[in-house]
Amino acid sequence: MTSDDLSYEEARAELARVVERLESGGGTLEESLALWERGEKLAEICQRWLDGARARLDAARPSS
Amino acid sequence: MDRRQVTRASAAERDVLTNARRRWPAVEFRVINVAVQGPGAVSQIIEALGTLDADPDTDLIIVARGGGSVEDLLPFSDEALCRAVFACRTPVISAIGHETDTPLIDFVADVRASTPTDAAKRAVPDLAEELSLIAAARNRLDRAIVNRLDREQQRLDALRSRPVLAQPTTMLDTHATQVAGLRDRAGRNLGHRVDRAGSDLLHTLARLRGLSPLATLERGYAVVQRRTDGAVLRDPAETAIDDDLRVRLALGELAARVIAS
What is the spatial distance between Cα B124 and Cα B130, in angstroms, rounded to a whole number? Predict the structure, then answer.
């Protein structure tokens, strides 16, 4: 699965799962770090998606 | 393109055109002027209706005439005219005379307008009103999507602000604390053991010193041993006359011999 193919909803849902797993603790430190890195990446994807949506909105709006 | 048709000039024509254009500037009219009273009126009106109905660019036909006496308005109650209006495939608005006039054409037309001005109102929508409706719809559209995006942003922010993501070092902190704690415990444990060993040693040394006969000898006591085997003597019966003895004193020893028991 390449991260950039995720839809916003998929990325957000996975991000929520990652946070939950991190919060529940458990797993090795290495696993936790990998999870955290994944979470950061997913958050980035979500943010990029939202920023893109806003840019499209601004572009489509009549300049006012 | 909107195209509305009028079949009579004059004040009625002006009322229709002016009011319709005020409401919808892009409206297009094709005006056919006909006699609206007298013997030729009916046939002229029927012919004009036919022309307009056959014109594919015509969306709507308005039959308009200003006020007049009941006799003047008689052509608009003519059976042939009414049938011609009924036969039209194009919608027809009748606008004859004043509000109180009710020529029969009003009952056949698709819409009865009370006056030519009223016909104009019914023929075209009001541009300003339409624009404000569109603006309002656009506004709601815009707000809806912006609200949605804001809500999603909040959800994302909420996830990102959770400590596990916002302060990932806390993840290391707990491990670091554990390591430090263990290290501390190990250090303290070792320290205790060293301390304990030290005090054990002192204790043992004190006991050792307590056991040493030196202190006793210094108080004036002596230890007597049989020379031959070094046995420490406690009972005179352990010796015989002439046995060689060693007498240990605090500061040295001397040789002695049993001369009596």
Answer: 11
pLDDT for the residue B253: 87
C-alpha distances (whole Å) from A41 to each of A7, A35, A47, B166 are: 13, 10, 10, 13
Enter the pTM of the model.
0.53
pLDDT in tens, B237-258: 888 888 889 998 888 889 899 8
**Contact between A36 and B160 using a beta-carbon 8 Å cutoff:** no
Tokens of B16: 């229709």
Q: Is residue B181 part of a domain?
A: no
Please check whether residue B192 lies inside any domain of the structure: no
Give chain B's domain count: 3
pLDDT in tens, B73-117: 899 999 999 999 999 999 999 999 888 888 999 999 999 999 889
B90, B125, B160 — which closes off a domain?
B125
d(CA A61, CA A13): 30
Domain of residue B244, residue span: 213-257
ipTM: 0.74
Q: Are residues B19 and B94 in the same domain?
A: yes
Q: Which of A22, A43, A61 sits opposite B160 (nearest CB)?
A: A43
Residue in B152, B156, B171 nearest the CB of A32: B171
* Domain identity same for B119 and B131: no
Instruction: Report the 10 Å Cβ neighbour count for B103.
Output: 23
